[in-house]
Design brief:
Layout: H1 3-38, H2 44-48, H3 61-92, H4 96-110, H5 114-128, H6 135-160, H7 163-171, H8 176-187, H9 189-205, H10 208-213, H11 223-227, H12 234-245, H13 248-281
């Protein structure tokens, strides 16, 4: 190996480690700053009460419940749609051109800014469909946003199942759907679950689309009543308290909660993937 080649390799290695160090430092600084500013402001009263403007009390319980309602409603709709579309494209579709067009459209959807989804959701779900500004409108908008994620992760998981598994099941006389249900899906369930967990992370952190479709209300209500009414999720509440009310302590408290939930979701996705990988080896 020439001297110039050795110098080039060493310089690139140093540059790589510098980039890794900067990324790690920035990430740790962001997490640490948010947690240091937010954790002291988290109290039981903040988490367990609703806001009262007469007494000046601030509570985020309605926002926590609204976030759970949106996550639940979105997953109930997007999981069957995304998994079903992935199964059709991978196992049933014969026309590869159509499959390519659908996959290209899915990738395009995943790259569209969320503010555009919010505008379209407001015009279509809130006005055209007559759902008004509500958590249901926000959930349906998030379904469109997360459909590419669930569909693509499921597709890639289905492709990892060896073709010999399918051929062996067909050789035993099993039908197409039975092969998919008993052989293919159990072999790629880790990818499906990982895609769902990542979708929860995106739903949890979304704010721009919900500003247009779900609204700002902090009312405390049940699941079905809440889905039909306007409501603020945690991310929307963070924007509201920081921008409109100037309550930066509450905003940092919400940011700390979201940060912890995001870390938990990412860890859950990693642990789930490792768990199913170990089961495959066994």
């Amino acid at each position: 190996m020439s001297v110039k080649r050795k110098i080039y390799i060493n310089v690139m290695r140093i540059f790589m480690w510098v980039c890794i160090g900067l990324t790690a430092v920035l990430t740790l600084f962001l997490i640490g700053y948010v947690l240091i500013q937010g954790i002291p402001n988290i109290t039981w009263e903040l988490l367990s009460t609703k806001p009262s403007y007469l007494s000046g009390r601030i509570g985020i319980l309605p926002d926590i419940l609204n976030t759970l309602y949106v996550i639940l409603a979105t997953l109930i709709i997007v999981i069957p749609l995304g998994v079903g579309a992935a199964i059709y494209l991978t196992e049933y579709a014969k026309n590869k051109k159509v499959v390519g067009i659908i996959e290209y459209a899915s990738e395009t959807l995943s790259g569209i800014p969320s503010i555009i989804y919010g505008l379209v959701g407001m015009l279509f779900f809130c006005r055209f469909c007559g759902l008004q500004t509500s958590l249901l409108s926000g959930s349906l908008t998030l379904v469109i946003m997360n459909l590419p994620t669930v569909m693509r992760t499921t597709q890639e998981s289905l492709k990892t199942v060896p073709q010999s598994y399918r051929e062996g099941a067909f050789g035993l006389g099993a039908g197409k759907w039975r092969v998919i249900r008993t052989v293919v899906l159990p072999g790629c369930v880790d990818g499906v679950i990982t895609g769902c967990i990542l979708s929860v992370g995106r739903i949890l952190g979304e704010s721009a689309a919900l500003l247009f479709t779900a609204g700002f209300a902090h009312a405390l209500s049940g699941l079905f009543e809440g889905l039909g009414n306007s409501g603020a999720t945690l991310t929307v509440a963070l924007y509201f308290y920081a921008k409109e009310e100037g309550e930066f302590g509450v905003a940092f408290a919400i940011a700390a909660i979201l940060m912890v939930l995001t870390v938990i979701i990412n860890l859950a996705a990693t642990l789930t993937q490792r768990h199913f990988q170990k089961r495959r080896r066994i």
